[in-house]
TrEMBL record:
Family: Belongs to the ABC-4 integral membrane protein family.
Domain of life of the organism encoding this protein: Bacteria
Coiled-coil zones: none
Transmembrane segments: 21-42, 294-316, 339-362, 374-395
The keyword GTP-binding is assigned to this record: no
Taxonomic placement: Bacteria, Pseudomonadati, Bacteroidota, Cytophagia, Cytophagales
Protein name according to UniProt: FtsX-like permease family protein
Topology class, membrane: Multi-pass membrane protein
Keyword field contains Transmembrane helix: yes
UniProt GO molecular function: transmembrane transporter activity
Residue ranges annotated for the MacB-like periplasmic core domain, each copy included: 21-223
Gene source species: Hymenobacter setariae
GO cellular component assignments: plasma membrane
Length: 415
């Protein structure tokens, strides 16, 4: 018998015992569904959370004057406080780093007020609106999107025009039934023209997020009345997360030059990065994958034992058939190959179903917990198919060897 004839014979044997084959394949499919489903759900949630962390600044870092916002004591001694980053220093840092690293995205902003009241059309907002002055990269750095209108033009940024981008909550209060773009509002004693509106962020955004935000050009913010000197936030981001550490090193060198830190002197600023959240996510996902893999391994172990048992029953039932095949010239190698192929085909059929169910189950679980991405884990699909073949070989080896070792004369006398 040829290899193809063995495959055809294995398929004929499978169809002749369809119920038993289906039950066996289901056992294997449940094991693969558990494996692929758990790992797919973890990967889908990991992918979704990775995007969320990226939007929250996981691929970014912020420069702050050391000791300016966190005056720590070490050994009972007050830590040294350095001057805040000035507007000139922030502008020089942005210019120098952008020239040195074109992939870097530098945003400079300043918080003007956190308790502002906006007025228009005889209406006014609650006095808890936040006014931020930002440059052309502010929206990109903060991962804010516009629902209407536009961002600031280069001329508006350079001249400090009285233009503003507002949040959804401000629009709903001041312009409930009309588009706010092109309209005017009053805040901090000035009249601003609305050029854009942020997309709604919802109640999950800390402090209201973009919904309660009035964004003005950075130069305009420098002209607005304030009680104290502005503190500038300098944030640097990159699309390539793998190059974040290298970019931090480059940024540190540029900021030291801008701040005139002498050779051998400690940095007069701190680099704050939120990539630790991403690392924690990776560690947690790795532990979940190990746990899920262990559960799936136990399930597959039970499936392989069940498959071996059923294949042994099949050998016993077909003892006379094996004797006839050997009497007609079939070798022990061909008999062994036939039973191995039967086991492998059953595993592949059940495993394929299990992989499809696992992908559906994993993405379904991820969808229930808030992930919106549909993921097909090709790596785990390949691993699952390899496991199917391995289980078939392991579970079918002993029954196939037992069938191959049968004496043809004794087999013909069986029953």
């Amino acid at each position: 018998m040829s290899f193809l004839e063995n495959i055809r014979e294995a398929l004929r044997s499978i169809t002749s015992n369809l119920l038993r084959t289906v039950l066996t394949a289901l056992i294997v499919s449940i094991g693969l569904m558990a494996l692929v489903g758990i790992l797919t759900a973890i990967d889908a949630m990991r992918h979704s959370l990775g995007d969320t962390f990226a939007s929250l600044g996981a691929n970014a870092f912020e420069m702050k004057a050391k000791g300016y916002t966190n005056r720590s004591r070490r050994g009972g001694v007050q830590g040294k406080q350095y001057p805040a980053i000035t507007y000139l220093q922030a502008s020089l840092y942005k210019k120098e780093l952008s020239q040195r690293e074109p992939a870097a995205i530098v945003g400079v902003s300043a918080r003007i007020s956190g308790a502002t009241e906006a007025k228009a059309n005889g209406e006014k907002t609650n006095p808890n609106m936040e006014v931020i002055a930002g440059d052309e990269n502010y929206l990109r750095i903060q991962s804010y999107a516009l629902a209407q209108g536009r961002t600031f033009s280069p001329a508006e940024l350079q001249t400090g025009a009285n233009v503003v981008v507002i949040g959804e909550e401000i629009k709903d209060k001041l312009f409930p039934s009309q588009s706010p773009v092109g309209k005017y509002l009053y805040a901090l004693g000035r009249r601003f023209q609305i050029v854009g509106m942020f997309e709604k962020k919802g109640s999950n955004a800390g402090g209201g997020g973009a919904d309660r935000l009035l964004l003005v050009p950075l130069e305009t913010g420098n002209q607005l009345p304030r009680q104290a000197a502005l503190t500038y936030d300098v944030k640097t981001a990159t699309i390539n997360a793998q190059g974040l550490n290298y970019l931090q090193d480059q940024a540190t060198g540029v900021m030291r030059a801008v701040r005139h830190d002498r050779l051998g002197q400690e940095d007069s600023f701190e680099v704050e990065s939120s990539d630790s959240a991403s690392k924690t996510l990776d560690e947690l996902a790795g532990k979940m994958q190990m746990g899920g893999g262990l559960v799936a391994f136990i399930t597959l172990l039970g499936a392989s034992i069940a498959l071996m048992n059923i294949m042994l029953v099949s050998v016993t039932e077909r003892t006379r058939e094996i004797g006839i095949r050997k009497a007609l010239g079939a070798t022990s190698r061909q008999v062994r190959q036939q039973f191995l192929l039967e086991a492998i085909v059953i595993c592949v059929l059940g495993g394929s179903l299990g992989i499809l169910l696992g992908i559906a189950m994993g993405n379904g679980v991820a969808l229930l917990v808030g992930s919106s991405s549909f993921l097909v884990p090709w790596l785990w699909v390949g691993v699952g198919l390899a496991i199917c073949v391995s289980v078939g070989l392991i579970a079918g080896s002993y029954p196939a060897g037992k069938a191959a070792a049968l004496d043809p004369i004794e087999s013909l006398r069986y029953e």
